[in-house]
């Protein structure tokens, strides 16, 4: 079957897969953080005006701040990420510095909760762990398909939650390919659409755990088709990290003992500290079935272990993934998701991982086109798009290589200038969970 036909086949079977879950009371558990996103209506003309007002140094010399304390720090950081066309996160000391620069609206933040919203849009149920449980967050998450666990251990919807912890706000700046940034006689075009997250970490600095959430999963493990772990990247201190990871390790053992076929799935992220990232990987990766990441995160991990790759060379990427799986003892395999393809490298699975990659691509592409979590009708629109030429070329290279039976690669439905890149990885992760039954 050709790849185009596989997309159509997966789309046609989506309702059947979701109905099967509902009739068997099965859903993925999505952990661990939530926060309120402030979505900025990014305007390159505003950045150019700020450059003219505040800055003297050359655009090519501007580097990101480790922590944004001044307007100059903010401008340098934005220019750097736009110039490189990359995504990432940078802390800010006080959000008041930037809250009036762009028009804004509220959105949902957190891999788990954004993934839950993507699934809810196609009427697929999921269970979420909340850290920021503010009214604004719970209102956004209010859906008959999104569940959480009360302090009494009951399965509830978020409109039944009473706030217990401090709110956390992230500013999201979405910049677009082709926009021009200039200062005096120097200028550049943004090479790729991406997003910069400006974070004021509060509650997620420690990722406080809801013990009833974990207890519910352990007691009802056969109903939890996959157990998604994420969001340790904001933790700054290794003692806090180790406390959380050791708890999760014990939780995984209990989950597995009650559901041996359940998938433990770890989604990687941009970390504020390489030390924290390394500690996290070396503590938890050996406990999980699948680790998932984008190509920038793949590159970052391999640099930590002095195993450089060329992320534009698919064979180099596969070799890098194999190194990560073997060096960090990941139990089954690794998924890499990019704008051109998604790929699984590892052991054979009981689940049809190719369909999971297709569903992941569908949900992510729909989010990129419409800027919202896609309905089934909106997802159908992605079937009209062409497959990425780079993705197709990479698939052909893999099929003619010695890795043809170790790597499953699915070209994306390609759009050159996405409306949004916010939450694309989270939507992808959500789609993959559909294949774990």
From TrEMBL:
The keyword Transferase applies. Keywords: Cytoplasm, Glycolysis, Kinase, Magnesium, Metal-binding, Transferase. It holds the Pfam family ADP_PFK_GK. Gene3D superfamilies: 3.30.1110.20, 3.40.1190.20. GO terms for molecular function: kinase activity; metal ion binding; phosphotransferase activity, alcohol group as acceptor. It comes from the Bacteria. The keyword Chaperone does not apply. InterPro entries: ADP_PFK/GK, Ribokinase-like. One of its GO terms (biological process) is glycolytic process. This is ADP-dependent glucokinase. It comes from Gracilibacillus salitolerans.
């Amino acid at each position: 079957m050709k790849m185009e036909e596989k997309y159509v086949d997966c789309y046609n079977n989506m309702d059947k897969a979701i109905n099967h879950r509902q009739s068997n009371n099965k859903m993925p558990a999505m952990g661990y953080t939530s926060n309120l996103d402030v979505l900025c209506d990014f305007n390159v003309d505003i950045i150019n005006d700020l450059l003219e007002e505040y800055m003297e140094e050359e655009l090519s010399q501007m580097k990101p701040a480790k922590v944004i304390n001044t307007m100059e720090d903010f401008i340098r950081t934005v220019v750097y990420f736009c110039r490189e066309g990359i995504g990432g996160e940078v802390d800010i000391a006080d959000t008041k510095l930037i809250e009036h620069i762009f028009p804004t609206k509220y959105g949902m933040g957190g891999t788990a909760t954004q993934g839950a919203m993507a699934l809810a849009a196609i009427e697929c149920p999921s269970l979420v762990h909340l850290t920021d449980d503010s009214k604004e967050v719970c209102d956004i998450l209010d859906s008959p398909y999104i569940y959480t666990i009360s302090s009494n251990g009951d399965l509830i919807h978020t409109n039944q939650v009473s706030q217990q912890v401090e709110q956390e706000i992230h500013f999201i700046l979405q910049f677009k390919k082709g926009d021009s940034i200039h200062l005096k006689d120097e200028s550049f075009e943004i090479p790729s659409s991406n997003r910069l997250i400006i974070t004021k970490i509060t509650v997620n600095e420690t990722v406080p755990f809801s013990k009833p959430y974990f207890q519910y999963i352990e007691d009802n493990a056969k109903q939890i088709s996959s157990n998604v772990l994420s969001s340790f990247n904001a933790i700054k201190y290794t003692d806090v990290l180790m406390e959380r990871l050791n708890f999760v390790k014990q939780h995984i053992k209990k989950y597995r003992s009650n559901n041996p076929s359940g998938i433990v799935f770890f989604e990687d992220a941009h970390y504020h500290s390489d030390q924290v990232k390394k500690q996290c990987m070396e503590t938890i990766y050996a406990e999980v079935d699948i680790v998932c990441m984008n190509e920038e995160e793949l590159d970052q991990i391999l640099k930590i272990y002095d195993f450089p790759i060329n992320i534009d060379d698919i064979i180099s990427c596969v070799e890098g993934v194999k190194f990560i799986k073997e060096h960090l003892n990941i139990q089954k395999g690794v998924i890499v998701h990019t704008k051109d393809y998604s790929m699984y490298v590892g052991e054979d699975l009981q689940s049809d991982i190719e369909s999971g990659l297709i569903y992941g691509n569908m949900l992510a592409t729909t989010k990129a086109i419409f800027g919202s979590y896609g309905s089934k009708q909106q997802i159908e629109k992605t079937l009209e798009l062409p497959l990425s030429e780079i993705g197709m070329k990479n698939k052909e290279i893999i099929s003619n290589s010695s890795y043809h039976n170790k790597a499953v690669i699915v070209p994306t439905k390609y759009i050159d200038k996405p409306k949004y890149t916010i939450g694309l990885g989270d939507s992808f992760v959500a789609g993959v969970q559909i294949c774990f039954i």
